[in-house]
Automatic annotation (TrEMBL), chain A:
One of its GO terms (biological process) is protein neddylation. InterPro entries: APP-BP1 (IPR030667), ThiF/MoeB/HesA (IPR045886), ThiF_NAD_FAD-bd (IPR000594), Ubiquitin-activating_enz (IPR035985). Residues 8-500 form the THIF-type NAD/FAD binding fold domain. This is NEDD8-activating enzyme E1 regulatory subunit. The keyword Cell division does not apply. One of its GO terms (molecular function) is NEDD8 activating enzyme activity. Keywords: Ubl conjugation pathway. It comes from Rhizophlyctis rosea.
TrEMBL record, chain B:
The lineage of its organism: Eukaryota, Fungi, Fungi incertae sedis, Chytridiomycota, Chytridiomycota incertae sedis. This is Ubiquitin-activating enzyme E1-like. Pfam families: ThiF (PF00899), UBA_E1_SCCH (PF10585). Belongs to the ubiquitin-activating E1 family. The active site is at C178. Residues 553-624 are annotated as: Disordered. Residues 562-588, 602-613 have a biased composition (Basic and acidic residues). Keywords: ATP-binding, Metal-binding, Nucleotide-binding, Ubl conjugation pathway, Zinc. Residues 614-624 have a biased composition (Acidic residues).
Length: 519, 624
């Protein structure tokens, strides 16, 4: 086995070789080499993203060296971008590391295209006056933006991205048995078993799927095609079970799984929406692989799929003799393969029709899309501009009704930002100004709440003190914890596997909790 | 002020920060969570840290254990972690131990010298052991574990919260040994057979496997079969190191043994009869795969000819290693290790050939490694989240900010966190009060302070039997109906044998040893035992002593054999993994207890702990 597979073994078991490839092709930009910033990068460099670039024009301070693992006493007064990059590089020689000693505002003014080279931009400890224009640049270029901030014991993290499509959300189970609408090979399989046999050993090894199918067919035959009720079905199962059977585990399995047989195989609403999305309708040569596949599956459903999605092709474990089980697996696999081939034909046609090579989408992608077609996900995030211009006042108000809810710290985060824009410093930065700052911060809270039309009676006094007392300090453990969450979501976005959070995460380390809000 | 600790002092205040700097903490484990923990502790300014880990650094650690680099492979995790961390904060004291936590020197007094213990372990047995020590020493313990995207931490404080062992750990079902031996139906059965049965037989302590078989044999025919097998094994082991060894093994286990099974009078209950391998043909057709060594080869199914080639090659290598080792040491054995290339090749090839014989689905080397090695996915991100939570909890413990919980109507401290990659992120719940029947934290525990060089066992026996009224204060007796005193496997004193006038040091007992005192009890069906720790005090004279601890001794019901058996299995089971267990994801180490009596410690990645999210739903959920 090659060294890389060996080194990355434990993570390859989470996202596979293709996930690793996607990660390895990723370029990540970090604005500000703060503790939470370098902790986030650490967790991305270790599993091997392609490259990282740290943008930071500040020099290293003594407190930086104290809370950032990637700075030492010797780094003090040197450029922070350069120092953290040097130490971060040591984590993994396969990852390229760059640094830019510039202010993000200057880059935006002089060379906004700079950001277009990245697959992900992460800002940390950056004031909103810089975050908002940067968010516009990233949004328009379709680049994911993560906004991260630590305020004392509290963390804030926002994902902004116009559209994120996921083929592999890693669902807990992939159950697609088609018992209510068996395909011919499945019926034929079920009919082969001799339930009248006196060989009890043979009877106790009939897979429960065959038992269920037999009972369903029998009921439909005698009841004009009607589906049995759950209790009728269970009764049929027990009637079919030979009295001499000493080990009826397979019949028990059938009994317990009877509800599965009555479940109607349908297309989930969320998937229907995806298939009927305008992006699936209008296929052009700029359409992404995801939308071409969505269109191909839509057409498959309308034609050879007979109204159903491509078959997942997996079978759960069950009591069975080896041979019957292998045959059953093969039947599902074969049908799934046929479905993939039909979809593949449609994909090729679509690609050719827009002037692309018929095999420009990798086979693995088509396979996965079909296998997980009932679990596809499209997340369309709200932009930061929407959040600021069309605040969800009612939603915030409803959460704020409970003062123990972490939404309080979202409000305070926004207030701290506003405080900074007004006073050009963070509240509590100077120890002697704590009381004054509490008053000033309270004004920011009040004005924000009134803008959002949230009834301003909410007293946040205790919380205000909490925030101001910690000042703009960044505790390493809090940064490390938040960096862990941010990098975990980054990997989900970069590999397009698993479902990232939508869209704001608030971390409260006083209570050791976190909450997710769609704002 | 803009010093190193500005952030800490600003947010925690100077008093608490002072406590943190003066605290003494112990970290058990320097793996995935351990690296993160040490970094966080050092940057938070924890002044005195000790770290212990027996393990050495492996290539597959480097995707997350960032205190280690390529050049450190095979070096001590504890030492390298210390060196690297000190570079980032030279102002803290770190002491590293490259050693097993089970060593005698890490006794209760040693545990007592810490303000807090943090466990970052990878197996159940060590977790329970550290938990026990922390209870005896009265030191708070923060447990942690991760598996893939999931993780958990919990705080355990004696007599306040649940201890790690208060919740009985679920016992997974293991396939019967005859399934492994004769009637496999799933790939895992073939893999366990290769790893725990055949590998041990050929390269391990063969006697164990044979003895266990003999015990489970039910009739003379089976015994006869076993005798034959035992002869065959001796014959094979005599051929170790020879050219023919590989082919001989193949002939024996994939042909002769299968034939034997097919010819047994008493029919085994398989649905499809196995097909013995045509060894001569297979050996002459054995072919080295073109893509051997590549990731594709690793992850695809092998043809029987390819498997045969790998089998012969790996068997030859292992057999040579074995023959060479035996020259040096007649008791030399090899142990299965998933990171041993030859051992993994052998187990994959054997599993494949056996699956071929029984017409079972074959697993790739990649999958086999996961199943045989109990591999749990592990990444830096989850470890960072969990270690962050641990250190935040640690700061709270040092601050003394934890009050008794479960006071009705009152808000309670939240002591248990889980990180779930799902929509919620971090969830938190009170860990709950201790289990009154817990055998770990609710045992009778007393400390005896004596001079081990002068105090005799006879004097101890007297003390235990003396009525409390005869003396005062710490010198009162316990009034027990003494039966025996044990230490580890040794019975120091049996009541029927009369008193022993040897001093405790003459009896080779040491400072920090914990005796088990067994006494008779008036309540029927109950037994009374006391864990008695001896503490050596050099200044104590002759027969002077102090007995420290609660004298309210409680008897407990004698556990029934059924439960004991369960406990026994738990001990063997060594750790946990896998969410929502079902029959198809049965992992190897649970099977270990059955298939291989002398199982090596089942290794896991960054250490499982148990999460029960919704105990009355799908049952307890387990994560690494």
């Amino acid at each position: 086995m090659d060294k890389k597979t060996q080194k990355y073994d434990r993570q390859l078991r989470l996202w596979g070789g293709h996930g690793q490839e996607a990660l390895g092709a990723s370029k990540v930009c970090l604005i500000n080499g703060s503790a939470v910033g370098t902790e986030t990068l650490k967790n991305l460099i270790l599993p091997a993203i392609g490259s990282f670039t740290v943008v930071d024009d500040k020099p290293v301070s003594g407190s930086d060296a104290g809370n950032n693992f990637f700075l030492t006493q010797d780094s003090i007064d040197q450029p922070r971008a350069k120092c953290v990059t040097e130490l971060l590089r040591e984590l993994n020689e396969e990852v390229e590391g760059n640094h830019v000693e510039q202010n993000p505002t200057d880059i935006m003014a002089n060379n906004p295209e700079f950001f277009h080279q990245f697959n992900l931009v992460i800002t940390t400890q950056l004031p909103e006056s810089i975050v908002l224009p940067l968010a516009e640049i990233c949004w328009n270029a379709n680049i994911p933006l993560f906004v991260v901030r630590v305020n004392g014991f509290f963390g804030y993290f926002r994902i902004a991205l116009p559209e994120h499509t996921i083929v592999e959300p890693h669902p807990e189970q992939l159950l697609d048995l088609r018992l209510d609408c068996p395909f011919p090979a499945l019926i034929e399989y079920a009919n082969k078993f001799d339930f009248e046999s006196t060989d009890t050993l043979a009877l106790s090894h009939i897979p429960y799927i065959a038992i269920l199918l037999r009972c369903l067919q029998e009921h439909k035959r005698t009841h004009g095609g009607a589906v049995p009720s759950l209790s009728e079905l269970r009764q049929l199962i027990r009637q079919l079970q030979s009295k001499d059977l000493s080990d009826p585990e397979n019949f028990d399995e059938a009994h317990n799984s009877a509800f599965k047989a009555r479940q109607q195989t349908t297309i989930p609403r969320a998937i229907e929406q995806i298939l009927n999305d305008p992006k699936a309708e209008d296929i052009t040569n700029t359409s992404s692989d995801f939308w071409i596949l969505a269109r191909a599956v839509r057409d498959f459903v309308a034609n050879e799929g007979n109204g159903l999605l491509p078959l997942a092709g997996t079978v759960p474990d069950m009591k069975s003799d080896t041979e019957s089980f292998v045959v059953l697996q093969t039947i599902y696999k074969t049908k799934a393969k046929e479905d993939v081939q039909s979809v593949q034909r449609r994909v090729s046609q679509l690609l050719t029709s827009v002037g692309k090579s018929a095999d420009s989408i990798p086979q693995g992608y088509v396979d996965a899309f079909c296998k997980y077609s009932a679990h596809l996900r499209v997340i369309r995030y709200r932009s930061l501009r929407e959040e600021y211009e069309k605040p969800l006042g009612q939603y915030i108000a409803s959460k704020l009704a409970d003062l123990d809810d972490n939404i309080v710290y979202y409000v305070l985060h926004r207030a701290v930002d506003r405080f900074f824009e007004t006073h050009k410093r963070y509240p509590g930065y100077h120890n002697h100004e704590v009381e004054t700052d509490v008053g000033l911060l309270k004004k920011c809270v009040t004005s924000l709440l009134s803008e959002w039309q949230v009834s301003a009676s909410t007293p946040l006094d205790d919380h205000l003190h909490e925030i101001v007392r910690a000042g703009a300090s960044e505790l390493h453990s809090v940064s490390s914890l938040l960096g862990g969450i941010v990098s975990q979501e980054a990997i989900k976005v970069l590999t397009r596997q698993y479902v990232p959070m939508d869209n704001t995460v608030v971390v409260n380390t006083v209570r050791s909790t976190s909450s997710v809000y769609t704002l | 002020m803009d010093g190193r600790y500005k952030h800490m002092i600003d947010s925690l205040g100077p008093d608490l920060f002072d406590k943190i700097q003066n605290s003494r903490v112990l970290m058990v484990g320097a793996g995935g969570i351990g690296c993160e923990l040490l970094k966080n502790l050092v940057l938070a300014g924890f002044g005195n840290i000790e770290i212990i880990d027996l393990d050495t650094i492996d290539l597959s650690n480097l995707n997350r254990q960032f205190l280690f680099q390529h050049k450190h492979i095979k070096q001590s995790k504890a030492h390298v972690a210390r060196e690297t961390a000190l570079k980032f904060n030279p102002h803290v004291n770190i002491k590293s131990h490259h050693n097993s936590i089970y060593e005698d020197q890490y006794n209760v007094p040693w545990f007592k010298s810490f303000d807090l213990v943090m466990g970052a372990l990878d197996n159940l047995k060590a977790r329970q052991y550290v938990n026990q020590k922390c209870i005896q020493a009265g030191v708070p313990l923060i447990e942690s574990g991760t598996a893939g995207h999931l993780g958990q931490t919990s705080l355990h404080v004696k007599d306040i919260s649940r201890c790690y062992s208060c919740d009985p750990k679920p016992v997974p079902k293991a396939p019967a040994s005859c399934t492994i031996r004769s009637t496999p139906t799933a790939p895992i059965h073939c893999i366990v057979w290769a790893k725990s049965y055949l590998f041990c037989k050929l390269f391990g302590e063969d006697e164990d496997a044979i003895k266990e078989d003999a015990e489970s044999a039910q009739n003379t025919e089976q015994l006869e079969t076993l005798r034959k097998e035992s002869e065959a094994t001796s014959r094979l082991r005599n051929a170790l190191g020879t050219e023919e060894f590989g082919k001989m093994v193949m002939q024996q286990v994939f042909h002769d043994d299968i034939e034997e099974l097919l010819n047994q009078k008493e029919k085994l209950s398989w649905r499809k009869e196995p097909t013995p391998l045509d060894v001569n043909t297979l050996v002459s057709n054995a072919v080295e795969a073109k893509d051997k060594g590549s990731t594709e080869f690793e992850q695809r199914e092998w043809t029987p000819e390819e498997a045969a080639h790998v089998f012969l090659e790996s068997t030859s290598k292992l057999s040579k290693r074995m023959a060479e080792g035996l020259k040096e040491d007649p008791n030399f054995t090899l142990e299965f290790d998933k990171d041993d290339q030859d051992a993994m090749d052998f187990v994959t090839a054997c599993g494949n050939l056996r699956a071929h014989v029984y017409d079972i689905e074959k697993k790739s080397r990649w999958d086999t490694k996961e199943m045989a090695g109990n591999i749990i996915p592990a990444i830096a991100t989850t470890n960072a989240i969990i270690a962050g939570l641990v250190v935040i909890t640690a700061i709270r413990v040092i601050d003394g900010k934890y009050a008794p919980i479960e006071v009705e109507g009152k808000k309670t401290e939240q002591w248990k966190n889980a990180y779930l990659a799902g929509p919620g992120g971090i969830t938190t719940e009170p860990i709950g009060p201790y289990n009154p029947l817990c055998v770990a934290c609710q045992t009778n525990f007393l400390t005896l302070r004596v001079n081990l060089n002068t105090y005799t066992l006879g004097q101890l026996a007297d003390l235990l039997q003396h009525e409390p009224e005869l003396a005062e204060g710490d010198r009162r007796g316990l009034g027990l109906q003494l039966e025996a005193i044990e230490l580890g496997d040794r019975r120091l004193l049996d009541f029927e044998d009369g008193p022993v006038e040897k001093t405790l040091s003459e009896l080779q007992t040491k400072n920090g040893d914990v005796f088990i005192v067994i006494a008779d009890c008036d309540e029927p069906g109950h037994t009374l035992t006391v864990d008695l720790m001896v503490e050596h005090v050099d200044s104590m004279e002759d027969n002077f002593y102090e007995l420290v601890g609660s004298r309210k001794l409680a008897s407990r019901p004698v556990s029934n054999p059924e439960e004991e058996k369960k406990e026994e299995e738990e001990k063997k089971e060594d750790g946990q993994k896998s969410l929502k267990r079902s029959s198809d994801d049965m992992k190897t180490d649970q099977v270990n207890g059955q298939a291989n009596g002398s199982s090596k410690k089942a290794k896991q990645e960054d250490g499982p702990v148990h999460i029960d999210l919704d105990a009355d739903d799908d049952g307890p959920m387990l994560i690494e």
